[in-house]
Design brief:
The structure holds two protein chains of two kinds. By secondary structure, chain A is mostly helical. Chain A contains seven helices and no strands. Chain A is flat. The two termini of chain A are 48 Å apart. In chain A, 7% of the residues are buried. Chain B folds into two domains: 1-95, Rna Polymerase Sigma Factor, Chain: A (Orthogonal Bundle); 118-182, Orthogonal Bundle (Arc Repressor Mutant, subunit A). Chain B has helices at 6-14, 19-42, 45-62, 72-94, 102-112, 120-130, 134-145, 150-157, 161-181. Chain B is globular, with a radius of gyration of 17 Å. The chains are: A mainly alpha, B mainly alpha. At the A-B interface, helix 1, helix 2 and helix 7 of A face helix 2, helix 3, helix 4, helix 6 and helix 7 of B.
């Protein structure tokens, strides 16, 4: 199979940017951002007033209502937990069995490791890739062997990280 | 263009009197790189413009949380990547796009984007990159176009360098395969 990517790489450079912007976009951007910051500050002040006059009393009322509900549920003579369990029609034995059930994490990890060994070094064809070495510059002709740089643990990390969810940051 | 050292920018921002001036310098120093990174994730200029403005507003609101021992560029890229991914996630929910179709939709939007100017080979490459899952595409862009080391990318994405190497390897293989098909 011809190495199209490597061939195309000769014609493409990383500096070739197909994504264009309107004229003077980057010169005007700081001004637009400062404008939005000023606007958001004004909105935040209005929001604070709303919080002070409407949200705080509402939260206080909700808290009192929640306290009253908890007090009513736990008052003597009301056995809520038993009522719920009996309504579910579950035997105590089956609940205990469910709670004692354990997931064997080691066997799960082993299963993952087994599945990734499909990509063993022998099965990966020798193909040109940019070097993974951070110090060395990437060049299309630099070959890399799969097993020398990527360990099974890396693959497991990779598979786990594929379920990546954007985090909130502080 | 990045002429003013980060330390000087942060020193100006830390003083209430020069806060706005320092932030203006920060935006001028990092807006272009941040925009390019976001543009490669969300593709269209209009969306990138929204996201990049949100990023710098978040930076303004959280600048006091920035730890002096961390690298400013890494912190900014981390926020940019998060914002861009959150934007894509909202787009999927808002337009009821199935998870596996979002990249296809982005690929189609390339030809409708007035600010995308590329020859045949470049378009082919961009479409091949867009055929990758979001996270692989992100790793590929950060490594290939931004030329960041796996160590730096690991700080931005909070993933081990080994996992990133694997991700980059699979991304590279898929691009090669897709270039042959396209």
């Amino acid at each position: 199979m011809p190495d199209d990517f490597s061939e195309n790489q000769q014609k493409l450079t990383r500096d070739c940017i197909p994504f264009k912007v309107p004229e003077n976009y980057f010169e005007d951007l700081p001004h637009h951002i400062q404008e939005r910051i000023k606007t958001s500050c004004k909105t935040a002040t209005k929001k604070n007033l709303c919080v002070k006059y409407f949200l705080y009393p509402a939260v206080a009322a909700a808290a009192v209502a929640a306290l009253l509900l908890v007090f009513w549920i736990n008052k003597p003579g009301t056995d809520t937990k038993n009522a719920v369990l009996s309504s579910l029609n579950l035997s105590e034995k089956s609940i205990t069995a469910y709670l004692e059930e354990e997931v064997d994490e080691n066997s799960l990890i082993d299963m993952c490791s087994d599945s990734v060994t499909i990509c063993s070094a022998e099965e990966i064809p020798d193909i040109s890739l940019p070097a993974y070495d951070d110090e060395a510059p990437q060049s299309p002709g630099t070959a890399i062997t799969f097993d020398s740089t990527i360990k099974n643990n890396d693959i497991i990390d990779y598979l786990v990280s594929e379920n990546f969810e954007p985090e909130t940051y502080q | 263009m990045h002429l003013v050292p980060d330390k000087e920018i942060m020193h100006l921002i830390s003083n209430q009197e020069s806060r706005h001036q320092g932030f203006d310098m920060l935006v001028r120093a990092y807006s272009e790189k941040t925009y390019r990174l976001i543009r490669r994730i969300v593709i269209t200029h209009e969306d990138s413009d929204d996201v990049v403005q949100n990023v710098f507003i978040k930076i303004w609101n959280n600048i006091d949380n920035f730890r002096a021992d961390a690298q400013l560029s890494t912190w900014i890229y981390r926020i940019a990547v998060n914002e861009a991914l959150i934007f894509l996630k909202h787009k999927k929910i808002f337009f009821f796009i199935p998870y596996y179709h979002v990249e296809k939709k982005l690929s189609n939007s390339l030809k409708d984007d007035n600010f995308f100017k590329a020859d045949e080979i470049e378009t082919k490459l961009q479409k091949a990159i867009l055929s990758l899952p979001t996270r692989q595409r992100l790793v590929f862009n950060l490594r290939y176009y931004e030329e960041l080391s796996f160590e730096e990318i690991s700080k931005i994405l909070n993933t081990s360098p080994g996992a990133l190497k694997a991700s980059y390897h699979f991304a590279y293989q898929k691009i090669k395969k897709n270039l042959a098909i396209l």
